[in-house]
Amino acid sequence: MTWLVTGGAGYIGAHVVRALQEAASAGETHLRPVVLDDLSSGHAEFVPDDVPFVRASVVDTAAVRTALAEHGVTGVVHLAGFKYAGVSVQRPLHTYTQNVTGTAHLLEAMADAGVDRIVFSSSAAVYGTPDVDVVTEATPTAPESPYGESKLVGEWLLRDQGVATGLRHTSLRYFNVVGSGAPDLYDSSPHNLFPLVLDALTSGRTPRVNGTDYPTPDGTCVRDYVHVADLAVSHVAAARALAAGRALDPVYNLGSGDGLSVAQVMATVARVTGTDFTPEVAPRRPGDPARIVASGEAAARDLDWVMRHTPEEMVASAWAAHQHTI
Fold first, then answer.
1. Of the candidates 86, 103, 227, 196, the residue with the CA atom closest to the CA atom of residue 148
2. Is 136 in the same domain as 108?
3. Do 286 and 165 lie in a common domain?
4. Where in the numbering of this chain does the NAD-dependent epimerase/dehydratase domain appear (predicted)?
5. What are phi and psi of 11, to 5 degrees?
6. DSSP collapsed to 3 states, 89-136
7. Fewer CB under 10 Å: which end of the chain, C or N?
8. Among the listed residues 107, 110, 141, the one whose alpha carbon sits nearest the alpha carbon of residue 124
């Protein structure tokens, strides 16, 4: 018995794979991971040598169906997708193909193979710009980008498939995922804040802030920043619960209850790296809401969700991993 991790060669997926490996090594052999990734943004070297790796896209139903059968898959952690909110505004059709069509094809293959458990990578982008200080799972969804819309549709697909086939599922709504749980696993996104800032510093450039005129205390976006290793722990907890037949809520926020502004993150980076700088100011990015901070109380209750890392530790671990890209 194994769990298929789609997007398992990516930054978040690779951490989930290693967390599943740790669980399997501790005796939970039914949680052994298998990776499916088309390497459009992932890295083959992120996949451990002893983890089976299928190079394929979730859009390829036949390839997914074969992988499920050949590896004795009993559950799926679905992280594969196009994850850039700002870019999705310029590439809506690509975003929907990867995130909506891909999820539908995955669910079709799962139904054909009799695999009835899935943990879905959703996003805080489903909330758009909420009018509350702290988001909960009951906060109305109002996505403001094709990316956020595609993630919400993904949740609906799971819900409807659950009604139709008895699929057991839960969706984890991510906030800003940062840091590293191992020096060889780094965030290589060309759009995420941490890699952009660290790459600028190592290249001798000044980091940029996208927008300083938001309705926030210092004018920069406010977000929950959560450590990727903490996120991975909760994915394993969700897989474990579904494997055991325990009931889970349809959605969980993996949030801190607090937030940091982009300016505060910049100041933390300067302290941790010992590099003093004043960020350049760039225009806002399309699709970026001013503030999203969420309560993680439900996930703490059911999915072992704990903020185990301080902002300084998040930056330090990201900085250590970034050295492997130089």
1. 86
2. yes
3. no
4. 3-255
5. -60, -55
6. HHCHHHHHHHHHHHHHHHHHHHHHHCCCEEEEEEEHHHHCCCCCCCEC
7. C
8. 141
Q: Which two tokens stand for residue 64?
A: 């997914």
Residue 61's SS3 state is helix
Residue with token string 């982009």: 262
Return left, alpha or beta for 214; rule: phi > 0 is left, psi -120 to 50 is alpha, else beta.
Answer: beta
Question: Which among 88, 73, 99, 96 is positioned nearest to 7, based on CA atoms?
Answer: 99
Of 193, 190, 201, 176, nearest to 294 by C-alpha is 176
Q: Phi/psi at 211 (nearest 5 deg)? A: 95, 125
Distance CA 127, CA 148 (A): 8
Domain containing residue 241:
2-176+225-253
Quickly count: other Cβ atoms within 10 Å of residue 23's Cβ.
21
Catalytic residue at 147? yes
Question: From first to last of its 326 residues, what are the pLDDT tens digits of the chain?
Answer: 999 999 999 999 999 999 999 999 999 999 999 999 999 999 999 999 999 999 999 999 999 999 999 999 999 999 999 998 889 999 999 999 999 999 999 999 999 999 999 999 999 999 998 889 899 999 999 999 999 999 999 999 999 999 999 999 999 999 889 999 999 999 998 888 899 999 999 999 999 999 999 999 999 999 999 999 999 999 999 999 999 999 999 999 999 998 999 999 999 999 999 999 999 999 997 767 788 899 999 999 999 999 999 999 999 999 999 987 87
* Domain shared by 231 and 290, yes or no: no
What span, in angstroms and rounded, lies between the C-alpha atoms of 95 and 262? 26
| 30 secondary structure, DSSP code | G
Out of 84, 96, 127, 147, which one is annotated catalytic? 147
